[in-house]
Amino acid sequence: MTLSPRAARHCWHAAINPLHATIYFSPDLGKEFAALGVTDRAAVNLASRSAAMGAVGAGVVTATFYNYRHDLIARHVPAVWETASPEQALAARLRAADSTLRRLLGDETIASPEVAEAADLAMRATEACTRHGRTLYAAHADLPVPEEPHLRLWHATTLLREHRGDGHLAALLLAELDPLEALLSHTATGRGMSHKWLKSIRGWEQSDLDAATDRLRERGILDAAGDLTEEGAAVREQLEADTDRLDAAPYEHLGADGLARLAELGGALVAKAVGAGAFPKDLFAKA
């Protein structure tokens, strides 16, 4: 079976990214970090994802996360490391991933051969990931691989998510989309976060959104209603195509049959997690 150019993108969107991202909207993550003394939601989010890089400062986090407001990051990093060490943060995140997946999927699914198979396939794909130029991926690739299948699967989706994400940043720079322009043009596709969540999670103000929207209109990427123009749709498609090209190796290594099976297994798990309330209902609502 020949690997479709869009097959990897579909698998990433339908099975890999959302399975990893359940952690960021899980109350279990907040509980684990609260036990460490970190109670601010933004601090929890920033520490949980950046901890693999060590006790880094705000500049490193802003660079690697790309689309967060720097002021939000600087408010919490590096101060959060005075309350919880990166090692404690990583352990808390793994415990939260365990409890989150058990709650969303159920113990029967967690113990199923399908989860073990999905974990094996996803880990096999990571064998072709590369560290050079991929800061967040490389940091997570240095972490130990969990033994339990559902946590191995979550770890593998983390690696695949960050590998694609690091390549996506290079594509964003080529497309000359700044952090908020990237977010707003993504929202306009119908796949991105709503403006409410861009402000809540990423730290942007309404004035920032308005200014970025004006810039995108001046470039002909958004129309007066805030929707993508034909040119804007082409920019977003080229952006995704460039990201696909930079992220092709793991899925070519897995092969077409393995990729199709991972998409099938992972997609079913994501559907179950979504049905169990893994994400806020208004997360992807436009405006």
From TrEMBL:
Entry-linked InterPro entries: HTH_67 (IPR054058)
Superkingdom of the source species: Bacteria
Pfam families found in the cross-reference section: HTH_67 (PF21863)
Family matches, as NCBIfam families: SCO6745_fam_HTH
Name of the featured protein: SalK
